User: Fold this.
Amino acid sequence: MVVGLESWTLARPELFLAAAAMLLLIYGVVRGEVATPFVSVTTSVVLLVTAVLLFAPYREGTAFASLFIVDRLTATMKAMVLVGAAVAVLMSRSYFEQAKAWRFEYPVLVALATLGMMLMISANDLMSLYVGLELQSLALYVIAAFQRDSLRSTEAGVKYFVLGSVASGMLLFGASLIYGFCGGTAFVQIARALLDGKAAEFGVVVGLVFVVAGLAFKVSAVPFHMWTPDVYEGAPTPVTALFAVAPKIAAISLMVSVLMGPFKPLFLQWQQIIVVAAVLSMALGAFAALRQQNIKRLMAYSSIGNVGYVLLGLASGSEKGIQSIVFYLAIYLVMTLGVFATILMMKRRGVMVESVSDLAGLAKSQPMMAFAMLLFMFSLAGIPPLAGFWGKLYIFIAAVEAKLYIPAVLGVLASVVASYYYLRIVKVMYFDETADALDNTPFGVYRVVAFVAAILVTLFSLAPQPLSLIAAAAAKGLFP
Assistant:
């Protein structure tokens, strides 16, 4: 295979990130632990520079013998992943320093995981899909158990590794079936084979089911969600923040590319699977979180519910549905990072606390922090006119236009039920009394992230049109 200059140009952001990660790793090994502050800050800068390289200059096309594709949708999703990863690294330093677990390997692992996510998003072949997926997963398994002296962190890493390995095996088995029946692994070859009549073959459908199951695990959709609450609760909080945004966005983007690309001829078959997964995810996310007292575990079930809404947009199979997904994920990214920045500020006498009841009296002791959390909770609940409301509205409109009336109604009902536990947090902050208030966190990264997230949620709420136009431009990549 001869690789031309065009291929290297299209993959410039990935090549830059890979080279930077390798150089930072070598620098950390040579300099030792004193290199950790420099490596962490530089990694965040590198991730943001990589996001700029996606659009300066912006180019589209396929590379490396069509193993790799770049279009407006992939570029937009990569930008969200890179921003989420960069912010997660910035929020990690203070936490791990306090836990005496801050080492230069952590930001390098995040950079390598992000590289895997970018390769996933741009995958145009089942082989490149799997390589990107495993590069991301192997780094994330280590990150989940990074706090080695913590039993909870180690347990989270083991659970994630074991269940993730099963999911990867399922995806690989499905990919092998598809290769056997379609005669190729390239998305173009698969699409051509399906259009030529291979769609009627039972083995292709079985292979697709296994591939969707493997991807559903990565987005923590029901019934492949079982790892999410335990891993979210057990992993270090900055790691949980990373898991909640970047890998989820990358996996959803991959699922959209796979199902709306080569497997579009099997739309009626996979639509049924996605609708069921969407409804079950929305329902579980709404009801299972009602009794949760740990706020990280609550956010895990919230993320499962949010994945349900996104899958409902995918099930519509329309351009408006994909547009609603991009729009929703951008808002979800900002809201989630803001919530976890606030959770990281929850300390009492210098010790991290994670219970919902620990937020009691926050409105009196730290009114700005409480107001930011109120914005995030109201937006996650979908209360108009906040940004989360517009995101859910676009999803439900796309579902109704696709005649998915019952799933859309069930989604609205699930959103109403979920509002209870979001509003419960607001009630605890503003109306519950406490004799032992949370520490007043000094100005730092957490406050900056929470403040910027609150500003962005406000802007998206007052003027959703610019973000909607960006989402519409990204969705057009799948509907030329």
